[in-house]
């Protein structure tokens, strides 16, 4: 059962060894037990969409080449693919819906626990939705904005307004291709309709709707989530924080939030400062209350409040196994049901809060936004009461922690590059044009036991910054980078190329910028748009010397994100491929032909350094097409080890 | 025993259909829905193992000099006649597990009810009514084939012969070309 993590941070390595010693099964063990995994699923050629099946295509050409309805591998693979996009888009967009709904509550109830924290951003969004802001109360505007965004989930006419934030050339292209998103829920419903037995069988047609659905996520549900979260909780600005399991403190009541929605974690973070609760903790023998997080909800409260991150998705069980966590509070997405087993090993309480996400064995305390502080207080009190049940002899907190800078947004780039009075992207564009900066890459996404934990994230990011590619990161990749010290400004001098180093030194930023949670990948879309608007680097996102990657992707959300970047004109790299390799046509379409239509495409490369080199080659190709100056500090790409 | 189960590992998709079909075929009801509801655990006698990203089905070889037969103290593990599959007489089996230790392929296991040793019986009941072994029938890619050993060898030899002739013809064509050019 002992699994050695060869590239992961030291805390994870220690805890995995400890889990093995304690005989506790965690995600890596469950992965080994599942081997070998079914090749039909991996190749995407298994179809369970009707009960004439289940059907599978023989990849060796001898057995059936079509399902019982007559669908061939191209159809089956394409249908399965867009269902994954729908799953991911649904998660992001439903999260966006919850944030919009919370804004509505804040607008209508003067006594709400939520209020508008960034009225300027609210007004900018109001203008996009053609809502009048002159002389109106902030809460009135907020109500109209909330209603307008909520309406976009079910509207039967028109287009999604957030998609109009894209460069005009891109919007024009989407309209010409017929993939401008119409309504958020509608695109997902249409995926389910098209993939029902006996509907869409033409793989390019299927995938085209997949593009539209992904756009309705990135330039729809996710963007609404990010923008309205900024309105409700504050637009982040650069902030110091810490990461890794060492943030747990044996002298404090440790409460770990896990999941995705800041409507819960932000309130918990605020309520934990309540003097009465802190006193109660002291009365129970602790020095206070220590809030930390796992996954994207951790990123949300890190970005806005500098709350420490205990770990990324694959450390969720490891945090519990420290024996120092009084309560793990979860909402939605990326929460392993397996947490029930590890929390049964010690005093840690597992509390679910969303009616959409219950776990057998956990305690369910439903979170209602209209009683937010009240419920948060109740939960924190449970954590405090649980402190005395901790078995101090069995507490093991790996003493590893790393400092980081987070809190970057599309807006903050204006500010830190141009300063307060001349906020501008000009220095960034100039740096790319002059060849000091090769380009930019977004390296994002989950972690997965099907690859070595953190090998992909860290090797790829280091290889990119070494070659003067500025990296922006979100989600679990951001947490991994944080744990490995790449989010510290001084890491530029250790790992970045000379050009990128110069910029980092001049501006004071790290070579890798943490832009937030997974819905905050929409921030990257805004950054790309701003770079285009600033000028000199083409007319559309597909002209930019940029690339995206999710080296350790796991969830359907990652598939949706990747597809909306492809739809936006970005070269998107994965290490383990999508489950599409069972169809040669779909594979060729997604990795090659689709670029002629949308200017972006998927790419797959198992080795993270070779993958980084392919991204760099693509960036260089874009530089050549833009006729930019040669790189100031060119270096031969070392062949992948 | 003229027919054997031939394994083509490059065709294995790791779908475990062979394991599942084996268990169903050896159940009382032979109906997968009933088995789940009754909670019966027939056990599977073929296993799919992984090595890196690849999958390999490992089945009983029905060895001529079967280690399991030699190890069995009661004669429970036996073959009825020479050339027939090695099978377990569950009444005689005392569950001592010596056969499990002895088998070099790791395909001798214990019945999930714990009462006797479990091994592939080459689906003798199915063969008797003209059916193929359950794992072979279930395999969707033909990684498992029930074939006459001598026929299989013959096809391999014919393929080799074809390759040798093609190579020889290619060589003699070259010689002819050279001669033509010289003239």
CATH class descriptor of the largest domain in chain B: Alpha Beta
Tell me the number of structural domains of chain A: 4
| Overall domain count of chain B | 2
Annotated CATH topology of the largest domain in chain B = Alpha-Beta Plaits
Tertiary shape of chain A: globular
What structural category do the secondary elements of chain A indicate? alpha/beta
Q: Key features?
A:
heterodimer, A: 641 residues, alpha/beta, Substrate Binding Domain Of Dnak, Chain:A, Domain 2, Rossmann fold, 6-stranded parallel beta sheet, 25 helices, 48% helix, B: 183 residues, alpha+beta, Alpha-Beta Plaits, two-stranded antiparallel sheet, two-stranded antiparallel ribbon, 7 helices, 15% strand, globular
Short synopsis of the structure:
The complex is a heterodimer of chains A (641) and B (183). Chain A contains 25 helices and 16 strands.
Textual characterization of the structure:
The complex is a heterodimer of chains A (641) and B (183). By secondary structure, chain A is an alpha/beta fold. Chain A has four domains: 47 residues, no CATH class; 161 residues, Substrate Binding Domain Of Dnak, Chain:A, Domain 2 (Up-down Bundle); 150 residues, Rossmann fold, CATH 3.40.50.2030; 224 residues, Rossmann fold, CATH 3.40.50. Helices cover 48% and strands 10% of the residues of chain A. Chain A contains 25 helices and 16 strands. In chain A, the strands form four sheets. A six-stranded parallel β-sheet of chain A has the order 6-5-4-7-8-9. Chain A has a six-stranded parallel β-sheet with strand order 13-12-11-14-15-16, sandwiched between helices. In chain A, strands 1-2 form a two-stranded antiparallel ribbon. In chain A, helix 5 runs antiparallel to helix 9, helix 8 packs antiparallel against helix 9 and helix 10 packs across helix 12. The radius of gyration of chain A is 24 Å and the shape is globular. The two termini of chain A are 29 Å apart. Chain B is α+β, with helices and mostly antiparallel strands and 183 residues long. Chain B folds into two domains: 88 residues, Alpha-Beta Plaits, CATH 3.30.70; 58 residues, Alpha-Beta Plaits, CATH 3.30.70. Helix content of chain B is 38%, strand content 15%. Chain B has a two-stranded antiparallel ribbon with strand order 1-8. Chain B is globular, with a radius of gyration of 22 Å. The C terminus of chain B is likely disordered. Chains A and B meet through loops of A and strand 2 of B.
């Amino acid at each position: 059962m002992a699994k050695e993590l060869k590239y992961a941070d030291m805390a994870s390595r220690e805890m995995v060894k400890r889990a093995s010693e304690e005989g506790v099964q965690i995600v890596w063990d469950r992965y080994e037990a599942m081997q070998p995994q079914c090749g039909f699923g991996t190749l995407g050629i298994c179809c369970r969409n009707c009960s004439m099946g289940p059907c599978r295509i023989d990849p060796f050409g001898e057995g059936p080449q079509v399902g019982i309805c007559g669908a061939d591998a191209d159809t089956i693979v394409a249908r399965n693919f867009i269902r994954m996009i729908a799953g991911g888009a649904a998660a992001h967009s439903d999260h966006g819906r919850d944030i919009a709904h919370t804004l509505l509550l804040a607008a209508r109830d003067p006594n709400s626990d939520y209020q508008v924290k960034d009225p300027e951003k609210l007004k900018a969004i109001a203008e996009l939705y053609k809502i009048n802001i002159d002389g109106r109360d902030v809460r009135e505007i907020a109500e109209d904005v909330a209603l307008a965004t909520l309406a976009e989930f079910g509207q039967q006419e028109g287009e999604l307004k957030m998609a109009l934030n894209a460069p005009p050339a891109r919007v024009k292209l989407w309209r010409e291709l017929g993939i401008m998103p119409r309504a958020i829920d509608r695109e997902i419903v249409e995926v389910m309709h098209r993939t029902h037995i006996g509907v869409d069988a033409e793989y390019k047609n299927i995938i085209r709707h997949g593009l539209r659905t992904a756009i309705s996520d990135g330039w729809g549900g996710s963007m609404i989530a990010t923008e309205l979260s900024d309105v409700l909780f504050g637009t982040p600005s650069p902030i110091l924080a810490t990461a890794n399991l060492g943030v747990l403190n044996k002298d404090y009541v440790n409460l770990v939030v896990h999941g995705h929605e800041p409507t819960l974690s932000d309130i918990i973070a605020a309520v934990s400062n309540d003097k009465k609760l802190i006193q109660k903790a002291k009365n129970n023998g602790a020095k206070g209350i220590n809030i930390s997080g796992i996954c994207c909800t951790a990123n949300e409260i890190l970005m806005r409040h500098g709350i420490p991150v205990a770990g990324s998705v694959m450390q969720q069980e490891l945090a519990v196994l420290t024996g120092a966590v009084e309560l793990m509070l979860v909402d939605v997405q990326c929460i392993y049901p397996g947490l029930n087993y590890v929390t049964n090993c010690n005093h840690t309480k597992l509390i679910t809060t969303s009616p959409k996400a219950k776990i057998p064995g956990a305690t369910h305390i439903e979170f209602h936004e209209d009683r937010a502080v009240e419920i948060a207080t109740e939960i924190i009190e449970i954590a405090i009461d649980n402190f005395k049940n901790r078995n101090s002899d069995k507490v093991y907190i790996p003493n590893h922690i790393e400092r980081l800078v987070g809190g970057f947004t599309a807006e903050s780039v204006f500010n830190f590059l141009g300063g307060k009075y001349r906020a501008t992207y000009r220095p960034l564009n100039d740096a790319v044009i002059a060849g000091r900066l090769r380009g930019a890459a977004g390296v994002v996404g989950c972690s997965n036991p099907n690859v070595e934990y953190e090998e992909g994230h860290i090797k790829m990011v280091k290889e990119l910054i070494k070659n003067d590619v500025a990296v922006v990161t979100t989600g679990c990749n951001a947490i991994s980078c944080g744990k490995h010290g790449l989010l510290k400004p001084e890491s530029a001098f250790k790992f970045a190329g000379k050009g990128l180093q110069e910029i980092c030194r001049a501006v004071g930023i790290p070579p890798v910028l943490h832009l937030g949670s997974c819905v905050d990948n929409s921030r990257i879309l805004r950054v790309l748009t701003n770079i285009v608007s600033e000028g000199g680097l083409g007319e559309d996102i597909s002209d930019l010397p940029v690339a995206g990657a999710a080296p350790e992707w796991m969830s359907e959300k990652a598939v949706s994100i990747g597809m909306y970047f492809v739809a936006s004109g970005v070269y998107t790299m994965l290490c383990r491929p999508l489950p599409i390799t069972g169809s040669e046509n779909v594979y060729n379409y997604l990795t090659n032909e689709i670029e002629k239509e949308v200017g972006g495409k998927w790419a797959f490369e198992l080795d993270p350094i070779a993958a980084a080199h392919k991204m760099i080659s693509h960036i260089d190709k874009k530089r050549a097409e833009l006729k930019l100056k040669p790189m100031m500090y060119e270096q031969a790409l070392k062949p992948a080890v | 025993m003229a027919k054997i189960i031939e394994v083509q590992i490059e065709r294995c998709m790791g779908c475990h259909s062979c394991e599942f079909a084996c268990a169903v075929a050896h159940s009382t009801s032979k109906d997968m829905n009933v088995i789940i509801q009754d909670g019966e655990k027939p056990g599977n006698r073929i296993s799919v193992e992984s090595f890196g990203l690849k999958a390999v089905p490992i089945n009983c070889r029905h060895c001529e000099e079967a280690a399991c037969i030699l190890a069995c103290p009661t004669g429970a593990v036996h073959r009825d006649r020479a050339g027939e599959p090695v099978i377990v007489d569950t009444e005689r089996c005392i569950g001592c597990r010596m056969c499990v230790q002895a088998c070099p392929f790791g395909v001798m296991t214990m019945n999930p009810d714990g009462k006797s040793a479990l091994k592939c019986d080459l689906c003798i009941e199915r063969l008797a009514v003209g059916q193929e072994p359950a794992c072979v029938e279930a395999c969707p890619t033909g990684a498992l084939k029930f074939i006459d050993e001598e026929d299989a060898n013959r096809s391999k030899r014919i393929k080799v012969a074809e390759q040798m002739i093609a190579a020889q013809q290619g060589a003699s064509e070259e010689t002819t070309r050279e001669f033509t050019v010289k003239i």
